[in-house]
Amino acid sequence: MSYHATVRRTIAVLEPGMLVPVARAVGPGGLVAIGGDLRPDTLLDAYAKGIFPWYESGPILWFCPERRMVLNLQDLRTGRRLRRTIRSGRFGVRLDTAFGEVVGACAGVKRPGQRGTWINPEMIRAYVLLHRLGYAHSAESYLGGRLVGGLYGLALGAVFFGESMFALQDDASKVAFVLLAEQIQRWGFKIIDCQVYTDHMARFGAREQRRDDFLKALREALRQPTRRGRWGLGAGLAGRGLKKNWTLPSARNGGSRSRPFTASSCTTTITRPWISWSWFWRRSSTRARPRLTVS
């Protein structure tokens, strides 16, 4: 019997247009539901419930792990060597100037021991649309005018949900991550959801939380307004990591602020890392999806 056939008995099965239920009945690895779609309303509602999609092909799988890797921004740690790299101006860092390229790079970069990527064309289209709607954002590192690292995710309330990173040069994604974290902390963000444990994120100060504790913190953070629109680095950060010959695109006030996010507030009129499945099912639910990692 296939895995899908086994879990259908206890996990919600969704039709297109149905929202993902709250994480009460949870299967292996924190699986909450199967099916549904990746429309903006569906994705925003799921993230507001602490649930994210992850699948390679076939029906969409929705997860809310028992152990959640979370970085409280006040606990952000940056090593001396990385600080020196940032100050050296080797990489120029920008926000929201190459979102599609960052997602494509995360999907295309080959990683040792992995046959494919979970970032399939359907996922790419979904997150690019969220970017156009002002919810999804990217941080990019450039070297000599070439994109060499970055990350992307989406923001609701005072939470940034990290999705994936890539690096073509040592420290490129780390520099982008640190400057993004420092910028959103200035805006009043509280946490970055790293989803599952990785040694890399632990070095930045992230820690595992119980699912219930994470969901409680998430509900509190969603009380704050969501910063939509294009983001940009503010004064004191825009100049860091930039040599004198670097120029930044003009930022449109760093994004706008909207009312606090709730499931009902995501109604939208539309026209319509990094791991193998065999590895996932060999691991416990606490170490199921190490995508937000840096190099």
Characteristics:
alpha+beta; 4-stranded mixed beta sheet; single chain; Aminopeptidase; Alpha-Beta Plaits; 295 residues; 7-stranded mixed beta sheet
Structural shape: globular
Model regions low in confidence, pLDDT < 50 over at least 5 residues: 242-291
Total domains: 2
Supply the number of helical segments.
Answer: 9
What's the end-to-end separation, in Å?
A: 39 Å
Going by helix content, strand content and strand pairing, the class is alpha+beta
Give, in spatial order, the strands making up the sheet with the most strands: 6-7-8-9-10-5-11
CATH topology of the largest domain: Aminopeptidase
The string of secondary-structure elements, in order, is: HEEHEEEHEHHEEEHEHEHEEH
Main CATH class of the largest domain: Alpha Beta
Estimated share of beta-strand residues: 15-25%
Mean pLDDT, to the nearest integer, reads: 81
Rg (CA only)? 18 Å
The proportion of residues forming helix, as a percent range, comes to 25-40%
Major β-sheet, in short?
7 strands, mixed
What is the assigned CATH homologous superfamily of the largest domain?
Leucyl/phenylalanyl-tRNA-protein transferase, C-terminal domain
Please provide the count of β strands.
Answer: 13
Describe the model.
This protein is α+β, with helices and mostly antiparallel strands and 295 residues long. It folds into two domains: 3-66, Leucyl/phenylalanyl-tRNA-protein transferase, N-terminal domain (Alpha-Beta Plaits, 2-Layer Sandwich), CATH 3.30.70.3550; 69-265, Aminopeptidase (3-Layer(aba) Sandwich). It contains nine helices and 13 strands. The strands form three sheets. The chain has a seven-stranded mixed beta sheet, sandwiched between helices. It has a four-stranded mixed beta sheet with strand order 1-2-4-3, with helices on one face. A two-stranded antiparallel ribbon has the order 12-13. A hairpin with a 7-residue loop joins strand 3 and strand 4.
